[in-house]
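Let us work through a complete example step by step.
Step 1: write down the sequence.
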Amino acid sequence: MADAGIYKIINLTNNKFYVGSAVDFARRKREHWRRLRKGSHHNKYLQASWAKYGEAAFVFVRVIEVHDLTRLQDIETEWLMEHYGKPYCYNATMHATAIGLGKVGPLNPSWGKTFNHTPEAKAKIAASSRGRIQSVETRQKRRLTMRGHTVSEETRAKLRAITGEKHHFFGKKRPEFGAKVSRAVILTTPDGTATTYPSIQALREETGLKGPTVNRALKTGKPLVRGPRKGWSFHYVKSKTQ
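Step 2: predict the structure and record it as tokens.
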């Protein structure tokens, strides 16, 4: 059995996780746990959650074994690109080879510095993000790395034990996702033309807009600021009970 590959550090109370790679799973776990216990872990989000929920809330899970060590960092980067920036992901960077990774305090090159991008730099970053298209080969590699997930019986037992008041949804009302996405939406163009759609899905199919674009505009209430649909705004149709 290979002892190298991709792992997750999972917070069992809220299912958030940190993802990384290791050439020796056992040693990598010891390193993480040692730093977390000392309060000196390089990832401040993971460290803060450790301090809040306690060591017993976290498990180290082997996600996929990698036999070709030359591809280890590439596979880790693929995982990071998939999950970085999501609410459930603790990672602070989407690149496995990011400078300063694992360095804390004065040893980190960003220690004590603040960064403000110039308008020109922001424009370049935006243009680069819009033009980034993943090849079919890259997408296939990412799909392959997602397979083969194995969870130990010990971890399964801990997950099964999260019931009642221990579960993060205990006492909370689960979001009515279906009702939300099926609500009617009004699209208003800059010239004041308003069109009503029976659902977000219907609007997307008709306009070709992506889900995150529409959801973000609905949440902020602000019109789109770029692209061929610049100036378009969206809002939900108010129900009779509102």
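Step 3: interpret the result. The domain at 177-236 is CATH 1.10.10.10 (Arc Repressor Mutant, subunit A).
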